[in-house]
Amino acid sequence: NADDLAKLGYKMLSFPSDMMRAAMMAMMEAAAVLRKEGTMEPYAHRQVRFADRERLIGTYELQTLEDKYLM
Q1: Please, what's the largest Cα pairwise distance for the chain?
Q2: pLDDT in tens, 22-37
Q3: Which of 15, 30, 34, 45 is the most exposed place for a label (fewest CB within 10 A)?
């Protein structure tokens, strides 16, 4: 665990498999809701808002670069 590794001198840890498996479980749960309900509305409280998603993935910065270099 992180505390044990910190005692050994590690300053940074990465848990990519754990994060990926958590994301996969969330996707399976969301798919089950969509299959059962035909909509994602009951799952909306567990989703990142669309504007936050755009900010997190850098959509606006990419659009700025596209405008600068591709247009």
Answers
A1: 53
A2: 999 999 999 999 999 9
A3: 45
